[in-house]
Amino acid sequence: MPSSERLVHKLHNLGLHAFPETSSLIPAEKEISAEQLLVGLAEHEDARLRQMLLPLFLYRPELSELVPDVLCGLNASGQATLKLFYTAAVFLQQVHEDQLKERVPHWCMLPDYFSAELDVSAKENPIERLELLGKRHRNLTGKTANWLGSYQHAANRLIARLAKEAEDTG
C-alpha cells in the first residue's frame, strides 16, 4: 500500500489540498497511479484519508471509470469503504450539480454503481438517499459517526474551496 505521504502527494497533484503537502520531494518515478490512490485511500487506517474518497470523486468524476476494476483488488473493508463513499459522492453530486458543474474541470455525472446493492435506491430525493446511506454506513462499519454530516461537510468544504478559487482568479 502507498504511504500516507504518497497518497497526500497524489491528492495534491489532482487538485485536492486537504492536507499539508509534505511530500514534494517524492521523485516523479515514485508517484502512484490513480488506481493505487483509490486502493490506498480505501484501505488506509486513517479515517481522514479514507474520507478523501468523497471529495476526490466529486472533484475528479472521471476517476469513476476505475472503480469497478479497483474494487476487485480491495479487501472486504476497503470494498465497503469505496462503495459507501463513492455512493455518497453520487448523491452529493446530484444535490450540488449546478455548483460543481461550473467549477469541476472534467465534469461528468458519476454512474450509480452501488445504490441498489447498498439498498438505498428506493428514495427519489438524494438527501433522503444520503440519510439512508449514512445508516447503512453505520451498520456496515459499526462506526456510529454522523455519516450524513460527514458527507455533507466534505462536499461543502470542496464547494467553498472551489468558489474561493474561482473568486481569486476571476
Give short descriptive properties of this protein.
single chain; mainly alpha; 170 residues; 60% helix
Walk me through the structure.
The chain is mainly alpha-helical and 170 residues long. It has one domain. Helices cover 60% and strands 0% of the residues. The protein is built from nine helices and no strands. The longest helix has 23 residues, at 147-169. It is globular. It starts with a helix and ends with a helix. The model has no long low-confidence stretch (mean pLDDT 91).
Compact summary:
By secondary structure, the chain is an all-alpha fold.
What is the H/E string? HHHHHHHHH
Mean pLDDT: 91
Major sheet: size, sense and barrel closure? none
Distance between the termini: 39 Å
Structural class: mainly alpha
- The helicity comes to 55-70%
Number of beta-strand segments: 0
Strand content: under 5%
Low-confidence stretches: none
Q: What Rg, in angstroms, do the CA atoms define?
A: 15 Å
Large-scale geometry: globular
Number of helices: 9
Question: What count of structural domains?
Answer: 1
